[in-house]
Specification:
This protein is mainly beta. It has a single domain, classed as Porin. The protein contains two helices and 14 strands; from the N terminus they run αβββββββββαβββββ. It has an eight-stranded antiparallel β-barrel. A two-stranded parallel ribbon has the order 9-13. A hairpin with a 4-residue loop joins strand 11 and strand 12. The longest helix has 21 residues. The two termini are about 40 Å apart. About 10% of the residues have low confidence.
């Protein structure tokens, strides 16, 4: 009996060791160019201005077939937009009311990566979903001559008082959507990638006793530079 138990433990240990030997771990960072798009309460399309932020974190690529990998990791990522009107979305051409919304998330990508050899390196092509968890943020409001800053708070449902709160701005904490990317990895392990991201969840909380039908979704693109160990 002891021999069987030791054999099972040995097999599991060898399997884990083999998997760790094949998994590629890396670090990644780069700029984000984010926006929040949607519709206002009247049904008109909202087009805000791009917000420049950044992302940084770690990645892990697990081989699943020849040239194919499951890629995941954890990223700190800044998202948001310029010129949106908080919970009252308006067109970016509004000359009276401007805001800059910056929200920090922890992103968990769940990607399928195709990585065939090309020249002295590898082509990188991938896509897949992501889920994100909001951790902090702020919103600067310019309603000339009034200037003030709000702290981001995360709630799925808010009251009328919270809706008109000038000290805090409320957004939903969880985000999810789809990523697509393409790039190239050098033989030394250094790689470059162009990313695009489309959020699928409305970030505006439900407001009690309100028929507000406006919505905003995260969207954007970025450039990543990484290194696989």
């Amino acid at each position: 009996m002891k021999t069987r138990i030791l054999s099972v433990i040995a097999i599991l240990f060898l399997a884990v060791t083999a998997l760790e030997a094949q998994v590629e771990f890396g670090i990644v960072a780069g700029p984000n160019f984010q926006n929040m798009v949607g519709k206002d309460n009247g049904g008109d399309k909202v087009t805000n201005g791009l917000l420049v932020g950044f992302h940084a974190g770690v990645s892990a690529s697990i081989p699943i077939a020849t040239d194919f990998y499951f890629q995941t990791g954890l990223l700190f990522s800044q998202k948001g937009s310029r010129n949106n009107e908080g919970l009252l979305p308006t067109k970016a051409s509004d000359e009276e009311y401007h805001t800059t919304t910056r929200i920090s998330y922890i992103d968990l990508p769940l990607h399928l990566l195709f990585k065939p050899e090309f020249g002295n390196g590898h082509i990188l092509v991938g896509f897949g979903p992501y889920v994100a968890f909001g951790v902090a943020g702020n919103q600067k409001v310019d309603y000339s001559p009034i200037l003030y800053e709000q702290k981001i708070k995360f709630k799925g449902d808010i009251t009328q008082e919270e809706y008109w709160d000038m000290e805090n701005a409320y957004y939903k904490r969880f985000d999810a959507g789809a990523d697509i990317f393409a790039g190239y990895e050098l033989s030394m392990g250094l790689w470059f990638r162009l990313n695009a991201q489309l959020g699928l969840l409305d970030m505006i909380p439900n407001v009690e006793e309100s028929d507000n039908e406006s919505f905003l979704k995260n969207t954007g693109f970025g450039v990543s530079v990484g290194y696989n160990f």
